[in-house]
Amino acid sequence: MVPMIVRTGKLKHLEIGGNLLHDLLEFNPYYGGRQVLITGKMGTGKTTLLSKLGENDLAKGAYVIWRGRTADGFHYFKDWESRVRILHHKNDQIRVFISKFGHNKSLEVTERLEMVSYSSVSDLIRKVKKEVINVVFEPTFFTISKDFMVYLYSKARIKLSEADRKGAQFGTLMWFEFHQQLLERLDSEWWTVLYDEIDDLFPSNSSGILWHLIRWAQLTFKDFRKSLISMFGTAHNYSDIDHRIFEKIPTKIYLAGAKVPKNSLLYKNAIQSIERGQAKIEWDNKYGEISKLSPYPVPKERLIVRKVWTAEIPDIGYALVDFVAELTKTIEDYGKQKAYDLLEKWRREGMVDRNKYYYLKGLIKNAPDI
After folding, report:
1. Beta partners for 234?
2. Domains in the chain, start-ordered, CATH in brackets?
């Protein structure tokens, strides 16, 4: 009789971690799109691991999108100059530079890369290609479309006025409309979106329109899974991200220096023993350890991206929904009197007209006491 091997302790954690990582890397309609957050202190390999997850999905035939940033890491991809495709708004000029560490000069490599411009979110989605890494730069300024306004009101009762729509011009707002259009696409292809520093989109201290959009976003993650959309992101700490989003991300990968949230299955000090090339993974009410995460070669150069807006600068105002969100947060944090004081300050500074002032004063008066 062959004796049964009982795995306990570290061996058991390695077995569970290996199985969870295997399932995470597979394209399984049962799991559908995967949402993963990678946390850890600076230099522990978050961007490297994010790149590897993208490489895995690229090899399996997914559309892979990497959100471009000024201090970027898409040169972590193997043979990146021949495989990266830059997509930028038609009103933005993009230039890419490489600077070797320890040197006081940089080399422009813009002409070595394929550059494609887009005019709208739908145009962007049409221009994304397979078999390449689509590095997408959000516009310097972005105006939410009227179609997305209608969608937000019908799905989440988020009502934006025309002034709200034109007043909020943050480029990061594009990604929310991008998610909505991905959810409503007609194909059944796999899509993967990679966000290095995902807290740029879902910051913990959001307000105004962004606060409302995050409220809508956290309701849609279940539909990401069904729509075969994977979203992988990195952050230094889970507290950098809006708690509504963090709580909806089912899979957490902790690298060295990460902090463990209170409701985690892992005990508080579980991360302290993690070394480079190791990680803890938590998913599907299980947790385990991943070892031998082979790192990419350490980059010998820094990647710098310069983005210049070439059109007129839009007239950016402070929208009514921003005033409402800030007063709501003030009431929650400090009480009604502080909200009244803030509203009076806005009136004295001419930030709100007579109609807005009385509307907001009524909003404070009718708010529940906390």
Report:
1. 38
2. 9-309 (3.40.50.300), 320-366 (no CATH)
